[in-house]
C-alpha cells in the first residue's frame, strides 16, 4: 500500500509508545497500536484511474457544493475522516500559482468554511482558467500541496493531501454550464475516478 507523505510523523510515535507500554501496560500498548494502525489507514494512497472522459473529482467524499460563481461553476467535495485524503487533478492543466491563505478551522461542510485556512491552485487549461482549492476542516492543521507554479498536470494526477478532515473544490473553466455537471449535492465520489462534469465538444 502506498501512503501519503508525512505518514511517519504521526504513525511512528504511536508505534513507539506501543513498544514502550508492551511490558509496562499492555492495554495502553493495544490502544497505541490501534492509533498507529488508524494513521496508516487514514494516509492510504490507492491507485486510481478515471472511469470515463470528463472532469474527475479532486477528492474522495460527498458533494457538498454545486453553485455558480460569476461565469464559472464550483463543485465542492467534503472529505470525511473515513475517506482517502490525497487530492488529484480534475483535468489536464498547467499550474499558474499556488497560494496559501491563513484562516479558521471550522467544519469543512459548513458555509462558514469559506473563512478556513486554504491553499488555492490557479490552473490554466485548454478550456480557460480554473482553480482547485484545498480547504482545511475542524481538525485539519496542515495542507500539503505537491505542486508549484509552472508544473504540468495530467487528469487524475496526485497534487496534494490534507491531514485529518477537509474539503476540496474545483472551479470549472467558464465554458462549463449546469447541464455539463454530472453530480448532485450528496453524491459520493472517488478522487481521480468519478466524473463530475462532462462537456460534449
TrEMBL record:
Keyword line: Cell membrane, Decarboxylase, Lipid biosynthesis, Lipid metabolism, Lyase, Membrane, Phospholipid biosynthesis, Phospholipid metabolism, Pyruvate, Transmembrane, Transmembrane helix, Zymogen
GO BP of this protein: phospholipid biosynthetic process
Top-rank lineage group of the source organism: Archaea
Segments passing through the bilayer: 12-43
GO molecular function per UniProt: phosphatidylserine decarboxylase activity
PANTHER family on file: ARCHAETIDYLSERINE DECARBOXYLASE PROENZYME-RELATED
Identification of the protein by name: Phosphatidylserine decarboxylase
Naturally occurring in which organism (per UniProt): Halogeometricum limi
Organism classification: Archaea, Methanobacteriati, Methanobacteriota, Stenosarchaea group, Halobacteria
Amino acid at each position: 500500500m502506498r501512503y501519503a507523505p508525512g505518514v511517519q510523523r504521526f504513525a511512528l510515535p504511536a508505534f513507539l509508545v506501543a513498544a514502550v507500554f508492551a511490558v509496562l501496560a499492555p492495554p495502553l500498548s493495544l490502544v497505541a497500536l490501534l492509533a498507529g494502525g488508524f494513521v496508516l489507514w487514514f494516509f492510504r494512497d490507492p491507485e486510481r484511474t478515471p472511469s470515463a472522459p470528463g472532469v474527475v473529482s479532486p477528492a474522495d467524499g460527498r458533494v457538498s457544493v454545486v453553485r455558480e460563481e460569476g461565469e464559472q461553476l464550483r463543485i465542492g467535495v467534503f472529505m470525511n475522516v473515513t475517506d482517502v485524503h490525497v487530492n488529484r487533478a480534475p483535468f489536464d492543466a498547467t499550474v499558474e500559482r499556488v497560494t496559501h491563505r491563513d484562516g479558521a478551522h471550522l467544519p469543512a461542510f459548513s458555509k462558514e468554511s469559506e473563512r478556513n485556512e486554504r491553499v488555492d491552485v490557479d490552473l490554466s487549461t485548454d478550456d480557460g482558467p480554473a482553480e482547485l482549492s484545498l480547504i482545511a476542516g475542524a481538525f485539519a492543521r496542515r495542507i500539503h500541496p505537491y505542486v508549484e507554479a509552472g508544473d504540468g498536470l495530467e487528469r487524475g494526477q496526485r497534487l496534494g493531501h490534507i491531514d485529518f478532515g477537509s474539503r476540496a473544490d474545483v472551479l470549472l473553466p467558464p465554458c462549463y454550464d449546469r447541464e455539463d455537471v454530472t453530480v448532485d449535492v450528496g453524491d459520493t465520489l472517488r478522487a481521480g475516478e468519478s466524473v463530475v462534469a462532462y462537456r460534449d465538444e
